[in-house]
Design brief:
mainly alpha, binds zinc ion, Arc Repressor Mutant, subunit A
């Protein structure tokens, strides 16, 4: 196998997650991830991250989100 499609899948994963790909490209990537554990793993991580960001944006005003994130970063830095 010369081209497993990983490069394309990884390059377009972000757009795929945001539903920004045309139907053909999205189908290619979906098909690739069905057979590639590496890319489907990255996809799962991407889904979790995307959902977390979307949830945060829906529930919190951007200004609140910004201070929440900054407070969390400060917490993390303080605990190390
Ligand atoms: Zn792959």
């Amino acid at each position: 196998m010369t081209d497993c499609g990983c490069d394309k899948a990884k390059a377009e994963l972000e757009e795929f997650l945001h539903d920004e790909l045309c139907r053909e490209d999205a189908a290619d990537i979906r098909e690739h991830m069905a057979t590639c554990a590496d890319c489907s793993g990255e996809h799962k991580v991407g889904i979790v991250l995307t959902e977390a960001v979307q949830r945060a944006c829906k529930e919190t005003a951007p200004e609140d989100l910004r201070s929440t994130v900054l407070a969390r970063i400060r917490d993390l830095q303080a605990s190390h």
